Amino acid sequence: MIDRKINLPGYFKSPWPVECGGNRRQKSVNGSLKAKDSQPKVQSISSDRWNVMVIRRDKDEFYLGGTMPYFFGPEPFGWIQKFDSRTLEVLAESPKLPCGGHVWCGAIAAHENGNIIKVNGNYMHSLNSNCELLREKKLPINRAHNGLLILSDGTIITKDCRLEGQGNSFITRLDPDTLELIHEPFALPEGSMGRIASEFNDQGEFIYVPGIERILRIKVNSNSLELDDSWMPKYRDSNGLHGLAWDGCISDGSIWLMDNGDIQSVRDIYGTEPNGRFNEFKSLSWRSPAPWKGKQRLIKIDTRSGRFDSLKPFEDLGGGIIAPPVNIPEANICVAWDSINGGIVGVDTSKEMLQVSWLKKYRPTMQPVVFPESNELVINNYENGSDQIIVLDVRNGELLSKADVNSKLANGMFLTPGNNRDIFYCSTGAFSRISWS
């Protein structure tokens, strides 16, 4: 179930047209960095922007999407930049894109029709390859929306963000050419914080949603969505020891998640309306103590049977994360971490029970990139008030390379592979390219 194809249904023909490289969120790419015997070179741009993610459209055609971190004061807006992948020079830039006042990261994707699609707050936008606005749609659900995916028929799906006690979330499905709704927003049976994933198998196309207590599966029909009430495994108890799950990685017949994601800053952002807007400055650090006492968990759920397995690989209580795990079936390793307490672990998936294979004291927060052919994992490490990019061997956790990326703030944003042994790094206030040669 590895989807490192250059032609994903619904997307522009590209090796990385959407966050995580595809709808299964496997974060895998062909090739290698050959980082161990190379010296990393870092190019950085500092700004007042919340840099969220980079995607690739055509050959050497890269786009950076983000929003403005205006948690108070000026009206927030989203934006997209087309940039030179070697110099980081901006080649084209969108106008200010409204977001309904919500401050949240959103997403971009390259559609098979050639356009760049962006969701930000409660707005969807379609832009051409020169970042010129084509269409704008105010979404019917007035909440921040967390990511978008393109289904095999080309339709666009997105979901609003809610925490426990904030009601049910909705999946909104739109026509890619007109941005009009395909059908009424689909009401989920509970709220949902994390981003959605999807896969197409011999039983059809399914959307996987991390809910408040359960992982939900939605069947995709031509003109409707349908809840699969035969598969709703519960991942979270109501004892208050653990938090909500972020996104899932669909790999090797299972969906892999980490819980403890609704850290205090996320609760603050989702707890105000518009989401993320305050009357005055508010500290939103992910380093704040966790609002629960449970240890960080890695969770595995079989996508056929719903069988549930979990592992608590870290000793510290009050674990927490702001990004999901990644499974690498070629190495029989799933990588998970604890951002609040620090620590990253490689979990052996080859046996019936999950077991720790290696554990290192790095502090990741981001969505990584994996090169399975060379067993290289690229992720960040926040250390002494500065963010770094590290490359680890997924088989044993060996540090292969480390580079400071000139960022004082780490968050849960996305890493993206470039064209030639390079990685793009996104964070609030910093955008970097790290290359090995």
Provide an overview of this structure.
- The structure is a single chain.
- This protein has 437 residues and is mainly beta.
- Helices cover 2% and strands 39% of the residues.
- Strand 21 and strand 22 form a beta hairpin.
- The two termini are 32 Å apart.
- The model has no long low-confidence stretch (mean pLDDT 96).
Topology of this structure?
Layout: E1 40-56, E2 62-67, E3 78-83, E4 90-93, E5 107-110, E6 116-120, E7 123-127, E8 133-138, E9 145-150, E10 156-160, E11 170-174, E12 186-187, E13 197-201, E14 204-210, E15 215-220, E16 225-227, E17 249-251, E18 254-258, H1 264-270, E19 298-302, E20 308-311, E21 326-328, E22 333-337, E23 344-348, E24 355-360, E25 369-371, E26 376-383, E27 386-393, E28 399-404, E29 416-417, E30 422-436
Antiparallel strand pairs: 1-2, 1-30, 2-3, 3-4, 5-6, 6-7, 7-8, 9-10, 10-11, 11-12, 13-14, 14-15, 15-16, 17-18, 18-19, 19-20, 21-22, 22-23, 23-24, 25-26, 26-27, 27-28, 29-30
What is the CA-based Rg, rounded? Answer: 20 Å
Percent of residues in helices: under 10%
Uncertain residue ranges: none
**Strand arrangement in the largest pleated sheet:** 4-3-2-1-30-29
Structural class, judged by helices and strands? mainly beta
Count of β-strands: 30
Write a brief structural summary.
The protein has 437 residues and is mostly beta strands. A hairpin with a 4-residue loop joins strand 14 and strand 15.
